[in-house]
Amino acid sequence: MYGDVAPMETAQLSPDQLDAQASRLHDTEAWQHIVTGWERTAQEPASHEPPASAPDDEARPAGPADWRELLSVPVDRLIEDSLRTLPPRQPQERPLPGRLGAVLPERLHTWRRIGQPDVRPSTHLGYARRVLTEWGWQNTPYRLRNARGARCLCGAMLTAHRLGYGSLDTVDRAGAWIVTELRSVGWTGLIGPWNRQPGRTAADALALIDATIRRASLAGH
Question: Does 68 have pLDDT greater than 60?
């Protein structure tokens, strides 16, 4: 659960492996239920036409109607929807390692995961965004990072994980939310090819993460 200490185990995934896992998760029936579930609107409200006037001699209710009867959806559903829109609790703020940290081997950051709580996918993506803005974005094919330490989109998520922001399960879910956002704008491929598309810019990558964070947050993720 979010807020619990994340498992220490961390696999040395490549960006392409993460990309494929996120796509498979996105295509599952369970994930589609998550995506479509929060997008469902409330039931159609009842007609607002005024009721026909009752004869004066007709018996009137003994007391006022229960206010719950005026709602078009159950009270527990309203509470659940309200709670899902609350922002997730942020983990303890820790600065990213400096420029030297950007070029160090990924395995040397693993100790930073010790004792860190798991976070929601939207929070994880916020830290992946920070990796891109502070360490740079790159679109070299099949590379987690370039010689300067700049990351691709999937590389930034893997780095955020190794810095202690989210379990591998959270990383998969964050990737699936990115795939969901890409599908909503007509991109049918994986994250990596989108990142490497000719003409793609760092601003495009950050805009995609921002849109994904909004989408995941609204779903309570």
Answer: no
